[in-house]
Amino acid sequence: MAFELDHLFICTDIGAGEAERLVSLGLVEGSSNTHPGQGTVNRRFFFHNAMLELLWVHNSEEAKSELIRPTRLWERWKNRNDGVCPFGICLRPVEGSGDTVAFSSWPYHPPYLPQTLSIDVAKNSDVLTEPMLFQTPFAQRPDRYPVEKLQPLNHPLGLREITRVALVSPAARHLSSELQAVVDTDRIQLRVGVEYCIELGFDGEVQGKQVDFRPGLPMKMSW
Question: In angstroms, what is the C-alpha Rg of the chain?
């Protein structure tokens, strides 16, 4: 069974002001989403094969509600600067490869989705030293979105596809079986570091350029 990166999220301050640095670098921002009933809002940047999401909680009561509580989104966001991993990684099956889930999971039915749809959330969702892992069987590459859902993909910076994702984590030596399963898909790399950081490589990184967005955003980009 083959899997692809669908998107990843980074928990940010309210309003995700860090997005302005991405825009100034030469990325075109896509549309924002509010997640009714989940209590979160995002700012998004789309590439041909995946999406980067900057996520924050805007309604704490919704985020702490009985339905949303098992995702631990509230705790992940609230403690993003206090030892909790601020990332989420979403996979999707490669088109035509079936509907197997990459890890042991439970079905999450967020209020903003039709009742017939669910998100497969990994059973390590209580392990806040690891990224939230989930899979959306109905997802697809942004460059294959239907016309009514198209997002800007042509960036002045010239970036097209995310070709490498590396998670740097102080907890990388002791993995849950779910995170190990994601590592085994070869969709992400993992190594030990003092602080949480996500590294995104674009287009094979042939230009040899890199930007480090820390401390405002725990992310590096290379292309």
Answer: 16
